[in-house]
Design goal:
Elements: E1 6-10, H1 15-23, E2 28-33, H2 43-51, E3 58-63, H3 68-77, E4 82-85, H4 91-101, E5 105-111, H5 117-124, E6 129-134, E7 164-166, H6 175-182, E8 186-189, E9 194-196, E10 199-200, H7 202-211
Parallel strand pairs: 1-2, 1-8, 2-3, 3-4, 4-5, 5-6, 6-7
Antiparallel strand pairs: 9-10
Helix pairs in contact: 1-7
The chain binds ligand LARABZUK.
């Protein structure tokens, strides 16, 4: 029996990207609000794109160390369903954001070695979901979306009682193995379905959706 992984396609920037993600069976679509990213969208662009997202698909807004003024403007203009915090937000800040906006919050935690794992537990206590991602290399321009994997064996025998997603360097070719090794039921992809940084490829999106039917 197939039990499809729940897929989040992140960094979507066009109506074509959204259509391709929906056709590939996405559960989540992610919009990146980080000016240095090739996937950055403005609040106005996201408001237009959000209208194109089919009902039932979770619209995730990814922000990095955003302040209340930015989040106020974002949540007033874009009908998002979840906030993804992808910076150095503390557990206290995660709790504040959750309370202020009344939206589910997913906190990204970067993993490179065993010392990073306690962070997952700390954020599990306050966030609704955790995105377990590869830690960006020192000096990287982006805190995520770098197309790099971490050693999946680090979390191979771990379970958590809240939903979590695996991210970092996933592709149509490795997503099934990554899910088998880590036990992930949800996966997030950005670079692995792009033909160039910030340019999503409909064929790769379809291939990823198929590969996520495990
Ligand atoms: O994708 C970005 O450009 C980005 C910029 C700033 C913070 C986070 C960012 N991406 C985070 C994501 O959720 C990615 O989907 C995740 O890191 C996996 O990325 P990839 O390894 O490229 O699949």
């Amino acid at each position: 029996m197939t039990q499809n992984l729940h897929v989040k396609f992140c960094g979507l920037r066009s109506t074509q990207d959204i259509a391709a993600a929906a056709a590939a069976g996405a559960r989540y679509v992610g919009f990146v609000f980080f000016e240095k990213s090739p996937r950055h969208v403005t609040i106005d662009q996201a408001a237009e794109l959000a209208i194109e997202v089919p009902m039932g698909l979770c619209k995730v807004a990814l922000t990095v160390n955003a302040d209340d003024a930015f989040l106020d403007a974002l949540t007033a203009a874009v009908p998002i369903d979840m906030l993804q915090l992808h910076g150095k937000e503390t557990p206290k800040r995660v709790a504040e954001v959750k309370a202020r906006y009344g939206l589910p919050v997913m906190k990204a935690v970067g993993v490179a070695d065993p010392d990073d794992l306690p962070q997952i537990d700390a954020y599990m206590a306050v966030a609704d979901q955790i995105l377990i991602d590869a830690k960006p290399p020192k000096g990287a321009a982006l805190p995520g979306g770098n197309g790099l994997s971490f050693d999946w064996r680090l979390i191979a025998d771990r379970t958590w009682d809240k939903p979590w997603m695996l991210a970092g360097g996933l592709t149509p070719d490795n997503v099934a193995q990554a899910a088998r090794m880590t036990g992930a039921r949800q996966v997030d992809v950005s670079s692995g379905v792009e033909s160039a940084p910030g340019v999503k490829d409909a064929g790769l999106i379809a291939a990823f959706g198929n590969a996520a039917k495990v």
